[in-house]
Amino acid sequence: MTGAVTLDRQPGLRKNRGRQAACEAGDEQGEPEGRSVLRETRPVAVGALREILLACPVTETFKWRSPVYTAGGGNVATAWGLKANCALSFFKGVLLKDPEGILVAPGANSRSVRMMKFTSVADIGRMEPTLTAYVCEAVEVEKAGLKVDFAKDDLVCPEELIDALDADADLRDAFEAPTPGRQRGWVLHVSQPKQAATRVSRIAKASPRILDGKGMHDR
Description:
Number of domains: 2
Order of helices and strands: HHEEEEEHHHHHH
Strand order of the largest sheet: 1-2-3-4-5
Radius of gyration: 19 Å
Largest sheet: 5 strands, antiparallel
Mean pLDDT: 77
Shape: elongated
CATH topology of the largest domain: Yope Regulator, Chain: A
Strand content: 5-15%
């Protein structure tokens, strides 16, 4: 599979009255306005994103405990409620033209996904036309069957992870089931520590989440 991590030992987001109240409460406490709004009304923010997306030519389903939007037989976008903001993430965001320059990579090692972040419900309302345009473009990308051209992945799977997968067939099946990006996220996470003992500890802590079908950055 293109972009998959090779298990090889060799290198190679409806306005409501509560929004203003939450904002005022945040100001009284000396907190940033956007942060207060998102903490108090995160479900409302995600609901506002869903309302916009449902007016687009996509189908809503739920995966990874979040709404996911599909078209042309593939995943197009997903809405996330994060700690300090909410986001609309595009699975093939790197292929979008992004004329507004608002798409960002979720992480330094993200090769396909790009997202736009919102720190207030008002931001979402103001950007509705832009959101709609980006979603429609993403739908056309999926319908056209465009693929992200991943460079050959030279990421090496650590010995400790290989051993853990070899010793547990269920863990291996769960690890290989998600997208290549999720596999890559776990490999990067496990590979970071210099000490083998720390890598083993990370694998032990990550195993329940892997078995639950979650990626490193999934809630």
